[in-house]
Amino acid sequence: MTARPGSALSGTARLPGDKSISHRALMFGALAVGETTIDGLLEGEDVLRTAAAMRALGAEIARETAPGGAARWRVWGRGIGALADPEDVLDMGNSGTGARLLLGILASHPLTAVLTGDASLRRRPMARVTEPLSACGAAFIAREGGRLPLTVIGARDPLPLDYRLPVPSAQVKSAVLLAGLNAPGTTRVVEREATRDHSERMLGHFGAEIRRREIDDDGHPALEILLTGQPELTGRPVTVPADPSSAAFPLVAALLLPGSEVRLPAVGMNPARIGLITTLQEMGGDIAIENPREEGGEPVADLVARGSRLKGVEVPAGRAPSMIDEYPILAMAAAVAEGRTVMHGLGELRVKESDRLAAVARGLARCGVAVEEHPETLVVAGCAGRPPGGNNQPIETELDHRIAMSFLVLGLAAERPVLIDDMTPVATSFPDFAGLMQGLGAELAAPQPA
Length: 450
Prior knowledge:
450 residues; alpha+beta; 4-stranded mixed β-sheet; 13 helices; 23 strands; globular
């Protein structure tokens, strides 16, 4: 697909549901007793893989049309400890979140399952999850580095876990807590740097006893999370907010194109997810936050973004956990800004769907933007306006949806069109990305057949 330089964007964009919350709603509904209804579920490939996996483990899941025409999902759960052995391999596609959280659930259930995924997911390390989960009594058989395909043999008499996160990771934290659901006693997680708390919020929504408190951890301030094992989760209604990671693309596009005004309703505003908004506002981005409220235990608000003149900033490493998925699109904003933008603490980007740090640096250089790549830092020298853009050489997305969408946004603000080599990965998280952006006035075109 090609993005061509265009004029101002305008309109209201109805964004897909939050992917992280969608995964959890399906999983927790499958572990609950009774019926869970889910409105606003992201129907991207990643989440549909999670739905298929929970069906394979015995949950009953159905999609229907709610009043007004929107999709509503219903889940009839099995209850904690009652999942069934799957008859086939669980294929998680491209979803690292789905795979890692599911490993946590399976680790404390007395069953055997095999997980695999696409080429990108099979390259991603799982040892960061399987190592702490082994302490509950589970066994894992995997390729070097804990990579998929992977067999998990769940513990018959699972033990509660006591784990200190060595690096900030909401996926690892969530996997440990989910393993603790089917273990007697109290599972404890300590994190020195706050990570996304979607699991804790939703576990509480479903009736789990979970407590969070600040503690001193060997002289360092930290957060302690305590989960009481073997609760009876009860089916609940869940309304999934619009995904802030998906909102990032039309949001940044609006800021980069003078005269734009784009409204994004009901975006998730979890404090652990809004680092990008904070950074863009520091850069001079005109982003209004309207009608703040709470839905299903999560804060949401309507965002209005207007064309702005951005300036480079220094982004501290401590902000990385709250915007780790948004650095690729932030780098596009930095390319258009005036001055240098320095982003620290990006080591986690190297083990995402691709080595995102390297992919962003290569792509920006191909578009004529001066960039420095360091082990955990990216420096972008802004063009103070439209960067040169493409030269008929496609940007290599490396099966990574966020790389694909980020460079298409850059193409809207560049002097020359930007072409990406593969649009198919976008279906994993944002199936209607092209249609939504075109509806706002973006010039995106599929390649013409030869």
